[in-house]
Amino acid sequence: MASQIVINxxxxxxxxxxxxxxxPQAVKIVREHDASSIxxxxxxxxxxxxxxxxxxxxxxxxxxLIGSNLVSLSLASLILVLKFRYPKSSAAPKGAxxxxxx
Length: 102
What we know:
- The chain is mainly alpha-helical.
- It is 72% helix and 0% strand.
- It has helices spanning 2-20, 23-32, 40-60, 63-85.
- Helix 2 runs parallel beside helix 4 and helix 3 runs antiparallel to helix 4.
- The N and C termini lie far apart (64 Å).
């Protein structure tokens, strides 16, 4: 019984970390209106991976697997959408007028 509690706690902690890991990136993009440093390919593969994990969870009828992966899928998809909305930095490039270049 105690080992099942530990196993479930590890699963919940892992799911929470996976879901929460996308939030700082999404907030940063929205604040700065800049997603130029985000890898489109990486997030495309991540979105596909979470879609497949969600499907796998549905096939297994595992609601914790489905729920955590749908949340992660939504957040990764948001970042991918923001990548297309804010593709280039609006900040002045390094070495622009007024800054010293060494």
